Amino acid sequence: MEYQTLQHEFPPVWDGESEILILGSFPSVKSREQGFFYGHPRNRFWKVIAAVTGQDEPVTVEEKKKLLLAQNIAIWDVIASCQIKGSSDSSIREVVANDITEMLEKSKIKRIFANGKTAERLYNKYIYPQSKVPIMVLPSTSPANAAWSLERLTEEYRKKITVSNGKEA
């Protein structure tokens, strides 16, 4: 498989009430096809977020956005553009990071989480020097992270993500 130079083609989900930000690395092939985050049918992100928040699993893009915003959760990816082979995080090179400054300035975001170690590493290299907001790593919800069951992922997310208004995120 050849490297492709790609741009992130869909915007973050956030509003002025967002309190936490969950960052991925770069959209998978399936997410790029759908034009929205965590689009691979075996990615467990939406199942985990629904379980942690006590909501039904969203199906449509609009349902996913509504769930996130109702729980004061923002999502985006670290990378604005890069070279990548397929969906492989390990192949990522030539990174240009997204600028999260506006999100931080115009929201209530105080805590940032990485969905996986690649997002954490890239954030610390490219974004943290400007943001100065530390990131906490969560286990990846990717199907490639087979070592983590859905139940174990859900419990880990539940332990780490709470929002200041007392709602579990």
Q: How would you describe this protein?
A:
This protein is of the alpha/beta class. Helices cover 33% and strands 20% of the residues. The chain is built from seven helices and seven strands; from the N terminus they run ββαααβββαβααβα. It has helices at residues 29-34, 45-53, 61-70, 101-105, 117-126, 128-131, 150-160, and strands spanning 4-7, 20-24, 73-77, 79-84, 93-97, 111-115, 135-138. The chain has a four-stranded parallel sheet, sandwiched between helices. It has a three-stranded antiparallel sheet with strand order 1-4-5, with helices on one face. Strand 4 and strand 5 form a beta hairpin. Residues 163-169 have low confidence and may be disordered.
Rg, please? 15 Å
Give the total of beta strands.
Answer: 7
Structural class: alpha/beta
Span of the ends, CA to CA: 38 Å
Question: How many individual helices?
Answer: 7
Strand order of the largest sheet: 3-2-6-7
Quick rundown:
With about 170 residues, this protein is of the alpha/beta class.
Could you give the topology of this structure?
Elements: E1 4-7, E2 20-24, H1 29-34, H2 45-53, H3 61-70, E3 73-77, E4 79-84, E5 93-97, H4 101-105, E6 111-115, H5 117-126, H6 128-131, E7 135-138, H7 150-160
Parallel strand pairs: 2-3, 2-6, 6-7
Antiparallel strand pairs: 1-4, 4-5
Helix pairs in contact: 2-7
